[in-house]
Specification:
With about 290 residues, the protein is an alpha/beta fold. It is about 40% helix and about 20% strand.
Amino acid sequence: MRIFVTGATGFVGSAVVRELLSAGHEVLGLVRNPTAALPVGAEPLPGNVEDHDSLRRGVEAADAVIHTAFNHDFSKYLENCENDRRAIAAMGEVLGHRPMVVTSGIGILPAGRLLEERAVPVLGGHARAASEEAAAALMAAGRRVSIMRLPPSVHGAGDHGFVPVLIGIARQKGLSGCPGEGRNRWPAVHRDDAARLYRLAVEKGEGGERYHAVAEEGVPFREIAAVIARRLGLPLGELAPEAAEAHFGWFARFAGLDVPASSAWTRGALGWEPRGPGLIEDIDQPGYFAV
């Protein structure tokens, strides 16, 4: 297939592009900068998620779509979530019968129990749910759209997500802190395993489904913080709610996530079995702590 990938130079998107190319697919990758370094063999399409004409051109030139692009500038998070809603709707206008996989997150689901694929976000409960709402609207209109939910930590070489944020906060504060005792749990996946699941979803998946890219159901936050403390030579501290707010700042909501999630149905439906290292093994490497 010829597959249009948004976010093709991003941490997850570039891994998806390499996985698709290795499986013999052609890739058309959306890039903001025409000189951006796409994986060798992919064709660039200049544009961005706010340039809806470029999105439509990409969809029309492909047999399938994988949407991984998202602006993670948290200073305008609400705006970025709504931009993603509009981008998905724009692609849906010309999607026809092509399959499309839309990226979402485990963290938008209601906490308090093991989250399975049939779980849905609470309406209006999380800004990032805009992406799932847009995808669900296309599903309801009969489009072959599926949702890929990523866990709080998609880890691997080049990670610039949640764990690096924690490392930066620990360096700044001189403490690797935990919300309370750190018993809250983050599901996790290595990015190469996630990339393989995207490929399987676009090759074998059905419209209307929700898939969980989860290799580990829930890694206790304390274990993550302990690796950071040891690697940086800092104390590990338990933080009461107010102290945690002050310590983590804007990241406090994410640090406190307790969203253990299952991928049992996903594995059975697509024949996916993660092969990469676990989160603790992966982050306990010098590369995560290089300045």
